[in-house]
Structure formats: structure tokens, C-alpha cells
Design goal:
The chain is mostly helical. Helix content is about 65%, strand content about 0%. It is built from 4 helices and no strands.
Length: about 140
């Protein structure tokens, strides 16, 4: 024939065969063989539109791991920038607050004390008399109390 054909890989048809196939797929990568990776291989298989060879599944598994690392880096950089922005905003607020405190007019303690005493005097004054319904005239004439 002139060329060598690679023998077609047999697809797993039992659970034991599938578990062995998954172990082989993970073995083709540098990823750990644990439940998380087994879950990932199962996900790769479910998402595939066609039968996968072990090499194809291993490549997709490694790509998934790369995607997770890339997402982690994005999130880490974003978190650092948010923390830096918050620290900068807090520093600017602190500077603005200290500048505002320097520009604020001095507080006149004597006037504040006088205002507080005038409120106390107002509280000590007698209240207006309460009028009951029996004291209100109904015929237009005033009732003597």
C-alpha cells in the first residue's frame, strides 16, 4: 500500500474501559490524576461533537487548564487594581478631609453654650392650655370656663 495506517483506537464501551481510558488521557498530560481531572475529562467527552482520541482529549484537557490559569491571572490583576484604586481614593479623601479641617472656621464655644441654654429655657416654659371638646362652643357663643 505504500503507507502505514495507525491502528484505530477502540472506544471504551464499559465503565472499566472508560475509567482506564480516562487514566490514559490524564497520563498524557502533566496534570494530577484526581477526581477533579476525571470530572474535567468527562466534561470534555460530553462537550465533544465526535469521538475523541486519547490525544485529542488530553489536548482539550490541557487547554481547559490553561484557560483556568488565564482566568485566575485576569481576576488577580483585577483584584489588585481595585485594591490600589480603593487605597488611592482613601488617601485622597484623607488629604481632602485634613485640608477641609484646616480651612473650617473656628468654633465659638461660648455661642454654642448660649444656644444650648436657650433651648433649655424654651423647654422650661409652660405649654399652652389644652382645650377639650366640652370647652369648645357649638352654638357660636363662647362658653365661660
Amino acid at each position: 500500500m505504500g503507507f502505514w495506517r495507525k491502528e484505530k483506537e477502540i472506544s471504551p464501551v464499559t465503565l472499566d474501559e472508560f475509567n482506564e481510558w480516562v487514566d490514559d488521557v490524564i497520563g498524557l498530560t502533566r496534570l494530577p490524576n484526581n477526581d477533579s481531572m476525571r470530572f474535567a475529562v468527562a466534561t470534555v467527552v460530553l462537550e465533544a461533537k465526535e469521538l475523541l482520541s486519547k490525544e485529542q482529549a488530553a489536548t482539550r484537557l490541557e487547554k481547559g487548564a490553561q484557560n483556568q490559569f488565564a482566568a485566575f491571572i485576569f481576576q488577580d490583576i483585577k483584584s489588585k487594581r481595585i485594591a490600589e484604586d480603593q487605597a488611592r481614593a482613601a488617601a485622597e479623601k484623607s488629604i481632602a478631609d485634613s485640608a477641609a479641617a484646616k480651612e473650617a472656621p473656628p468654633v465659638d464655644v461660648q455661642n454654642e453654650d448660649t444656644a444650648a441654654r436657650s433651648n433649655e429655657v424654651a423647654l422650661d416654659q409652660p405649654e399652652a392650655p389644652i382645650v377639650t371638646p366640652a370647652q369648645v362652643p357649638t352654638d357660636g357663643s363662647e362658653k365661660a370656663s
